[in-house]
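Let's do one together. I've listed all components of the complex below, 1074 residues spread over two lines.
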Amino acid sequence: MEDENRQTPEEGQAPSKKAAKKEAAKLEKQRRREAEAAAAAAASLSIDSADPLAANYGDVPLNDLQSKAVTGRKWTDIGALTEELKDQQVLIRGRAQTIRAVGKNIAFLVVRKKGFTVQCVLTVQNDVVSRQMVKFATGLSRESHVDIEGIVSVPDTPIKGASQQVEVQVRKIYCVSKAVPNLPINIEDAARSEIEIEKALQAGEQLVRVNQDTRLNYRVLDIRTAANQGIFRIQCQVENIFRQFLLSEGFVGIHTPKLIAGSSEGGSAVFKLDYKGQAACLAQSPQLHKQIAICGDFDRVFEIGPVFRAEDSYTHRHLCEFTGLDVEMEIEEHYFEVMDVVDRLFVAMFDSLNENFKKELEAIGKQYPFEPLKYLRKTLRLTFEEGVKMLQDAGVNVDPLGDLNTEAERKLGQLVLEKYGTEFYILHRYPLAVRPFYTMPCYDDQTYSNSFDVFIRGEEIISGAQRVHVPELLTARAEACGIDVKTISTYIDSFRYGAPPHGGFGVGLERVVMLFCALNNIRKTSLFPRDPLRLAP
Amino acid sequence: MEDENRQTPEEGQAPSKKAAKKEAAKLEKQRRREAEAAAAAAASLSIDSADPLAANYGDVPLNDLQSKAVTGRKWTDIGALTEELKDQQVLIRGRAQTIRAVGKNIAFLVVRKKGFTVQCVLTVQNDVVSRQMVKFATGLSRESHVDIEGIVSVPDTPIKGASQQVEVQVRKIYCVSKAVPNLPINIEDAARSEIEIEKALQAGEQLVRVNQDTRLNYRVLDIRTAANQGIFRIQCQVENIFRQFLLSEGFVGIHTPKLIAGSSEGGSAVFKLDYKGQAACLAQSPQLHKQIAICGDFDRVFEIGPVFRAEDSYTHRHLCEFTGLDVEMEIEEHYFEVMDVVDRLFVAMFDSLNENFKKELEAIGKQYPFEPLKYLRKTLRLTFEEGVKMLQDAGVNVDPLGDLNTEAERKLGQLVLEKYGTEFYILHRYPLAVRPFYTMPCYDDQTYSNSFDVFIRGEEIISGAQRVHVPELLTARAEACGIDVKTISTYIDSFRYGAPPHGGFGVGLERVVMLFCALNNIRKTSLFPRDPLRLAP
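Okay, and this is what the predicted structure of the assembly comes out as:
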């Protein structure tokens, strides 16, 4: 179940100076090797020119890659290479994932594209494949892009090292783009599961484990693994299902500004900047603007966009920049209407992911094994009080009017799973004191609020509430929370021109993907993560 | 917590101090009036308590708006009020758009919701509607939210002042949320077309014209107009069609960081900030990261997200923050493949908008009249040289190897429209010198490049090109452009691990909407625009 390593706070840090120097030295070495390899290749080419088949292989000249012509050639997708194409000639493009020579007369290349792989074979034959051609192929560096023309053949025995069950008997092979001979990360190392490493270790073999910082430093290589390709395709689908569901229910997608005036005086740290001489900061959420949109008659809105938090959090679940999925909607009479949207939206999302994206989930699970998420057709709802009671009954000491810490949330997740058989549930009616000032208090008890959090596998992914839409109450609540009302007058004024009762919620896209797939670190679900120490690539 | 971020909403800043003071004084005046109105309302309520029908009208107590109960009541959408509901009792919620008393016994209210309006009538009748009830209704301030229960009736003559051709005979009326009695902008003023103002002026009547700064200062009111509701619904659809088209063609949606180290590639005017002690800036485009995604095997990607430009541009078409629609894709052999995507994508988009969003386009056109965009089934492509020749033949003096200025672009748009009958076309093979260093030079003439711009109604909306994917050439091009190669080593290194030929383009969402609807200012298509002087609301 556990992959790589349980995250400690040190992980996810940018490389230290020492490490950076080491990397630089390593790169320098690589470049030297690359230069030598290039010289060797040039030397071998001079031999090749004596080969009558020399036109059938070699590096594609740069000029031919500058949109020289529309030839009408058709490239076949590697995923489309099946027995039906037997004996046909095909043209494919992809990366040379592995290259293996058998003596001087045979070479095997596994070529990869869009997650599919095919074995390509060069066998020396008069007038078809020369020794020099085999030499050229075996001299290619891994991850180089190649164009291959060849004949599809069907071997007698199943092919283990490639996804496609046919081979391509190579007739022509050209290198479109060379990779450096020594990659900072080998894709097969990056794609290895923790289980494989452990098994090999037990058998006395030490396999390479690529640590997280190296992965993130060379993200351009790391994201080529099947698991990473799956993760970001799932992320795209989570967003897409979110959008399509909301559009189908009459929500309008909006974009609100990330550059906002002033500098926040609230709890969270913000990134500050100078905006043409005015003090500005990066939005920590689209809260104000999505509420203005509701007061501006949009009825139901959502936004998908970056959210910035300058907090010094070094956990497995915090980033300084992440993708927020935000929703705001008019309420007819109860904040349960907002929870109803959450319920239907996420059940639809989980269903769709499980049904339509099996291949991607399998690819992720192969490297990072996980159990499918357990969730109910109708999402479980517990009040905060009920949650506290469950914890107390289990002997956990919690403040009934405080917030739950991460540990208590995790414990409650376990208790809920045992009792209700679900890893996805809503906890609502939080104590008013632990929610933002704009949260609507409960009608019957001002100690509590019309708010909720949503949990997956014991971790919070969503926070939502009914908002205070009455300017006088909003002012009073701000004052009660010790906020200088003058600093938020624009916010409060937005509700003076007729404001419908409304509520909404916010979700972190990276957290949804992380927890749906039970991944152990949010850096795995951010394409280019930003944390207090990492600002590159 | 994702959305409940403890952030204090920012203070708004008006464009100038003077204006701000004026606004403040105005608001203060309003508040005084509001207080007086409230006192008057309270006085009238004390009379109402003597009314046996007093329970059928009044302000909804706050407590009832705090999610007190799920009653199962059903609100009927105003748009759903048709003759079929004749004699039935309905419950509706909406804004009191206009309120008119006829003597003391009759009141008419036009109630608006989601762009639909219905006329509601109160007529004094024993045991049904009291004089005090009519007084309560006529005392409501415009834009207040009301709940109305009543009977649907069908009048003999067509209704001019509302979208629905039925009336609601009011039985109960409650105010859910009060607007201040004197709004800084009246919605009917904000919704007025320039033509109406001119016509009235000719008839000797001076109607209120709401200027753009006032609109933007009170955007919460301004966006309630039918035209603005249409504009932002069209914007949402432009984005949606863009996404769905690309997803259907195998593109993956990604999110790249907006916080990047150092100062952005190419351009100079960036917003700088301190990132935990490191120099950082806001991304001017996702250029580097979308290219890394391509080199990382994602084959075809797109991103929708904010783009930041700190340029001091005060034009009708520049913003400091806008929504970028970015695409990057592998190229098999020619940058025409990228132009093919642009062609099919935008033709599909224009078709879909015209077919499926007529109501929204009509609402926009009613206030801002425009001719439908003229475009061809197969988008016209001209080379830059051909464009220059057309301009020169028309007597326009242009540098054949320089960039076209805004005026020349507009003129060329006219010439193209006259000659080819289209307002949407692609101009390609731009001079290399006027494109960024990472643009691929033409195979046959290094003076030109594999690049293109796309124009709507004579204004540029898209810029695209094949990129240089060969590290050595990229280095040479950067040096030739006077860029210190050390500062972009991360960028160049991304191409050392096998990089496929690729290209892409970027579109400004706000510009597409502005030019499709022939609007005269980009601030009309940004929900909360940011320009060098505006950072609020």
